[in-house]
Write a structure and sequence with these properties.
about 140 residues; mainly alpha; two-stranded antiparallel sheet; 2 strands; about 65% helix; about 5% strand
Length: about 140
Amino acid sequence: MVHALTLLMVLLVAAPLASYIPLTTLAAVLFVVAYNMGEWKEIGGIFQLDFTAISVWLVTFALTVFADLTVAVAVGMSLAALLYIYRIADTTTVVPVTDEYIRDGLPHVLQGRILPPYVCCFGFMGHSYSARRRSWWRQR
């Protein structure tokens, strides 16, 4: 809170003086601050990811440089979400629960129950199954 008030006072008092600072000096200060904010050690870890994750990062980086930051964030988040959905869908399977499935002894809540013929049951396996199961148990 003290830092924010100090910054506000400096801005209110020194704002008229800022018009005398050359824009090249402000650009240099901005460049140094941006360089120091970059986590340059992390870039090596990015190139150890798979091709699709690197592609999302490169597209987001290029859009940040050549377009607008808000566009880059929107496109990067959309691509990352689509990549996540693809990976989850690729590892998730939906299989019908049949009498043979139940007889094989796989654990589920319907063991030992008789289902009417008009009821259709499905078993979900994969990441989404685990997430839904945990959230369902939390609700109870």
